[in-house]
Amino acid sequence: MRAAAIVPAAGRGERLGPGVPKALRLLGGVPLLVHATRALVRARLVHLVVVAAPPSDVASVRTLLAEHDLGKDVQVIAGGDTRQESVRLALVALPEDVDVVLVHDAARPLAPVELIDAIARAVRDGRAAVVPVLPVADTVKEVDAASRVTATLDRTRLRTVQTPQGFLRSALERAHVGADGAVHTDDAGLAERAGIEVHVIAGTEDAFKITRPLDLVVAEAVLARRRSVRE
Q1: Average pLDDT of 160-182?
Q2: What is the pLDDT of residue 18?
Q3: Vertex 56, ends 32 and 62: CA angle to 5°?
Q4: Cα separation of 189 and 196, whole Å?
Q5: Do 49 and 35 contact (CB within 8 A), yes or no?
Q6: According to the model, what pLDDT value does residue 17 have?
Q7: Which of 5, 58, 88, 145 sits 20 to 30 Å CA-CA off 168?
Q8: Domain-by-domain residue ranges, the chain?
Q9: What is the rounded distance in angstroms from the CA atom of residue 32 to the CA atom of residue 16?
Q10: Torsion of CA 98, 103, 107, 113, to 10 degrees
Q11: What phi, psi does 82 have (nearest 5°)?
Q12: What 3 state SS string does the chain have?
């Protein structure tokens, strides 16, 4: 089964502060998008990567990725106004022979290659939808509009979800067609809405999402640790 990875990278990432789009922020002197795309390219089971870039930056993103000589088929298309729209546009752009689709956030630049291949393998082994997850460490409260606690949730049943998320292409296409204007923060939510069974595998701490300036500091430390191990 031929697998492709979609990277929705058209968002601004305003919580990181003003400046270039979040996917183009630097980590270790290299844009987050390049780190994320490089990991996907290195995965054995991924054959093609499609990046959905800001419409005004398509040419510059193509140039950026070409400069880093990633060594595998990487295409850049114009993304949409939302993450969901960017994924839908990238789905339309995929070749017909792609059976498995991974969706990976550029804001998770340090997701290990091993995790990417594990997700792709789980889909190839028969799962329609697979996501990596981590246990919730903190106590979680449910609150109402008046900031009153209404419940303490059982955290043993809760998980935080990461990317890449993997799908049979037919399942992901069905999920997006059935969205009916509803907006979800991840593709697994769309799959659930469409009645598609979503399975989980163990995620990894390194696949954390960069949202705030502090996250960039942590990512720099992880990157430095990896470089020291290689040396």
Answers
A1: 92
A2: 58
A3: 55
A4: 10
A5: no
A6: 59
A7: 58
A8: 2-230
A9: 13
A10: -70
A11: -125, 165
A12: CEEEEEEECCCCCHHHCCCCCHHHCEECCEEHHHHHHHHHHHCCCCCEEEEEECHHHHHHHHHHHHHCCCCCEEEEEECCCCHHHHHHHHHHHCCCCEEEEEECCCCCCCCCHHHHHHHHHHHHCCCCEEEEEEECCCCEEEECCCCCEEEEECHHHCEEECCCEEEEHHHHHHHHHCCCCCCCCCHHHHHHHCCCCCEEEECCHHHCCCCCHHHHHHHHHHHHHHHHHHC
State yes or no: cis peptide before 31, omega within 30 of 0.
no
Is the CB of residue 105 less than 8 Å from the CB of residue 144?
no
Q: Is the pLDDT of residue 14 over 80?
A: no
d(C-alpha 55, C-alpha 22), whole Å = 15
Contact indicator for 111, 32 with CB cutoff of 8 Å: no
How far does the chain reach from its first CA to its final CA, in angstroms? Answer: 36
Rounded Cα distance between 101 and 103, Å, is 7
Contact between 103 and 167 (Cβ < 8 Å): yes
Do 140 and 95 contact (CB within 8 A), yes or no?
A: no
pLDDT higher than 70, residue 109: yes
- Tell me the C-alpha distance between 161 and 146, whole Å: 28
